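Deliverable D5.2: sample structural annotation.
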Amino acid sequence: MTHREILEALSGLLLGLFVAVLSSTIVSNALPTILRDLHGGESAYTWVITAALLSLTASTPIWGKLSDLVSKKLLMQVALVIYIVSSTLAGLSQNTSELIGCRVLQGIGAGGVVALGQICLAAMVPPRERGRYSGYFGAVFALATIGGPLIGGVIVDTPWLGWRWCFYVGIPFSLVAIVVLQRTLHLPVVRRKARIDYLGALLIAGAVSLLMIWVTLAGKNYPWASWQTAAMVGGGLLLAALFVLTECRAAEPIIPLTLFRHRTVSLAAAASALVGIGMYGATTFLSQYFQLAREKTPTMAGIMTLPMILGLAASSAAAGRLITKHGKWKRYLVAGTFLLALGFLLLGTARADTPYGLLSLYMLATGVGLGLTSQNLVLAVQNTVPVKELGTASSAVTFFRTMGGAMGVSALGALLGTKVTHYLTQNLAAAHLPAAGGAPGGGELPDLHRLPAPLVPLVTDAFGHGIGTVFLVAAPFALLAFLLVLGIREVPLRTRESG
């Protein structure tokens, strides 16, 4: 394909990516309002995010395998149709259970769009030139991450719209993306009988789901050391072991274990899982921080996270161009994971009264780290594996990133609920107020404007301290990603695709 043809096709892929990312970021600032309307608590907050991530995780390898067998353009359009249907149903939800179910469907569609976007790019452009185009993906990711919270906040703050339009607003973009792809994306179609490893997808989804449910409920519905813990953890590990056995015997496994014979693939997959915790955790918990610890509106919460998102956009675009120019990529992975760990460590010191100037620097470091890391881990793997495994390998990296994000957000959300309760109890005791004296109860997210005035600073302090603790706990995972990236061997980028 010529440069012009690539850009024309890329416009449809990027529009689809914008929609997929928007589906998760647009609800981040709107969720406190949505869950107050639907009477959901901290666990529901976590599950509205992680339900989409979980289905995205389970479906990504299936989309990747299908892309090696049938038309990539058709698959991308099918994924967008799934997104349109699920978004419509999500906007009609009457309770948190319905909303979470619709988010599962949204995750399936978004998983196809995210995975297939990278796969289509890899089919059009050789690795040496891919850095420049990957920078466009990073920039659109940042744009959707910037626009999502802002759009969601404006929608929630506009009385004649309401939060349901957070799900409807992406539908027109999806329809345009389908039309653009139909007219511009022309890739060779491999025609052979597809043998999809549905059992493998079911087992890995079951394993991750069981462990996420355990993390969400343990310590609240039952003790950490209990028979429920033993049953769920044991069941999750058993399903994971069965998944490995299934992949060893499947004719066309969902994640071929032979991929991990490549040292780069193994290290990049593990690093991607750890980076996923930072990618999804940062947007999820910063939204709560600004609304519940600093009493900002959903719109202002989106605006105040701009330093992180601008850092992500600028670093992703700059790294893409530099990689294309010089052919070196490892240095950006090393710098990115280091900055991500540093940013989380600094955010771990945040409290309700931390000056915004300092927070901006902390968020900027985190954003630059994410921008240098997320796309380039995919590039490193694509440059390592044979062309025939390009789709499967690309989706495997995305799989581990979203799995890490789903598990991380679930675990950190459970930790946040526990810490907020602990710090609020301490604050009430220090103020000589009864624990039930108008304080938030039942696990529901508080509406700060309806609380008695003496309670508001106690609640905001509890959320500020709790969310700071969450970032502090996440920092070692980013540091581990840094150590893993150091072990990746840099291979010069291919200037053409070869078997």
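Annotation notes: The CA atoms of residues 223 and 229 lie 8 Å apart. The mean pLDDT is 83.
The annotation will be released with the project's public dataset once the embargo ends.
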